[in-house]
Write a structure and sequence with these properties.
Shape: globular
Subcellular location: Cytoplasmic vesicle membrane; Presynapse
Number of strands: 2
CATH class: Mainly Alpha
Largest sheet: 2 strands, antiparallel
Distance between the termini: 10 Å
Strand order of the largest sheet: 1-2
Pfam family, one: Aa_trans
GO molecular function: gamma-aminobutyric acid:proton antiporter activity; glycine transmembrane transporter activity; L-amino acid transmembrane transporter activity
Number of domains: 1
Structural class: mainly alpha
Domain Amino acid transporter transmembrane: 78-425
InterPro entries: AA_transpt_TM
Length: 438
């Protein structure tokens, strides 16, 4: 389980509690749009680390459980605000459709396309790395669930990728949302199994281990880890644009993050009360072998069902950047006159699926490499760029406290990004220097 754990930790996926943030949107916003559940799965949909902050349960950790949702929700709202401008009548009108449009608007008129290129590169890296991670985790979980079978971890990854090839035929976000709905159901099963086991041991809960005190040194680390479980900015412009009632976007985000915050906190507490000081980093390692195997299988299903969303998003970015844009791209249009994907375009999609497999199998220390790139692209897309764009586009309309908040988030995001980059670089150097096995 070590490789998967490191990969999730390095990229913000291994969190100190269950990531139910992407379960609640489907429940709360099903009347708003059927695609909300799919788009809001975004990232972090395969987090199964146990509640390490409650291993000491200090006041700073308790605060860190509840502060990131407010930061993330605000960043998501200001990114959507950058899509709008006031018309002559004072009405807010949507003048931009994507993250790229926002970036281009900020760099105009001197460099009208520079911002879009930067965002596109960051998005592609982030999304493809996420796809590769799901393949790595699927192979790792299956290998650890059935250690006695004569199948290597790489072979399990190949089997998982074979099941992912149909993703090349995805046509729209509506189809992706169906996979996300199934992913949500798998998540419910996993939560029910783990919580049921914890409740079965309620008589032995270690209430005496729960203590509250302030640990100043741990607080920044806790914030840096937890905050990444609330990142879905890449998908938000498309989500808001496809909602049946875009005016309810803010309400939806508020309730989603409130529910996620409460559920994560409760899960973390229940899990720690069950295992106390013996709580292990990955929650499946705390379970008995029988339940562990069942949970791991559902986690594999969850990983495979999560794959279509980042894959489809990456395909859309690549197609728009290189294969369709009114004849302004480097290659011919991959769609025919009837709107159908050409055969060679389908082949390229299949090639992208195979590419994620090859990266998962052959790239050494992929977990650390992902942490290295993710500390830059993830923090940039989710925290640094939204704050900069908000200040650039809406500077004249912002109040002083809004400016202060944007600057504060930019500084905090920058610190987390630099810290993650340095630690990942140190890990890579150490791994290659001492030939550490993954």
């Amino acid at each position: 389980m070590g490789s998967a754990t490191k990969a999730l930790q390095a990229h913000g996926f291994t969190l100190p509690f269950w990531d139910v943030c992407h379960v609640t949107p489907c429940l709360l916003c099903i009347t708003v749009t059927s695609q909300a559940s799919g788009a809001l799965k975004a990232k972090g949909c395969l987090s199964w680390a146990c509640p390490t902050p409650f291993s000491t349960v200090d006041t700073s950790d308790s605060f860190s459980l509840f502060s990131p949702p407010s930061f993330a929700a605000t960043q998501e709202k200001i990114l959507i605000a950058c899509l709008y401008e006031e018309d002559e009548d004072g009405q807010m009108v949507r003048v931009r459709d994507s993250y790229v449009d926002i970036a281009n608007a900020c760099c105009a008129p001197r460099f009208p396309t520079l911002g879009g290129h930067v965002v596109n590169v960051a998005q592609i890296i982030e999304l493809v790395m996420t796809c590769i991670l799901y393949v790595v985790v699927s192979g790792n979980l299956m290998y650890n669930s059935f250690p006695n079978m004569p199948i290597s971890q790489k072979s399990w990854a190949i089997i998982a990728t074979a099941a992912l090839l149909p993703c090349a035929f995805l046509k729209n976000l509506k189809a992706v949302s169906k996979f996300s709905l199934l992913c949500t159901l798998a998540h419910f099963v996993i939560n029910i199994l783990v919580i049921a086991y914890c409740l079965s041991r309620a008589r032995d809960w270690a209430w005496d281990k729960v203590k509250f005190y302030i640990d100043v040194k741990k607080f920044p680390i806790s914030i840096g880890i937890i905050v990444f479980s609330y990142t879905s900015q890449i998908f938000l412009p498309s989500l808001e644009g496809n909602m049946q009632k875009p005016s309810e976007f803010h309400c939806m985000m508020n309730w989603t993050h409130i529910a996620a915050c409460i559920l994560k906190g409760l899960f973390a507490l229940v899990a720690y009360l069950t295992w106390a000081d013996e709580t292990k980093e990955v929650i499946t390692d705390n379970l008995p072998p029988g339940i562990r195997a069942v949970v791991n299988i559902f986690l594999v299903a969850k990983a495979l069902l999560s794959y279509p969303l980042p894959f489809f998003a990456a395909v859309e970015v690549l197609e728009k950047s290189f294969f369709k844009d009114g004849g302004r791209t480097y290659f011919p249009d991959c769609y025919g006159g009837d709107g159908r994907l050409k055969s060679w375009g389908l082949s390229l999609r299949c090639g992208l699926v195979v590419f994620t497999l090859l990266m998962a199998i052959y790239v050494p220390h992929f977990a650390l490499l992902m942490g290295l790139t993710g500390s830059l692209t993830g923090a940039g897309l989710c925290f640094l760029l939204p704050s900069l764009f908000h200040l650039k586009l809406l500077w004249r309309k912002l109040l002083w406290h809004q400016v202060f908040f944007d600057v504060a988030i930019f500084v905090i995001g920058g610190i987390c990004s630099i810290s993650g980059f340095i630690h990942s670089m140190e890990g890579l150097i150490e791994a290659f220097r001492y030939n550490i096995e993954e």
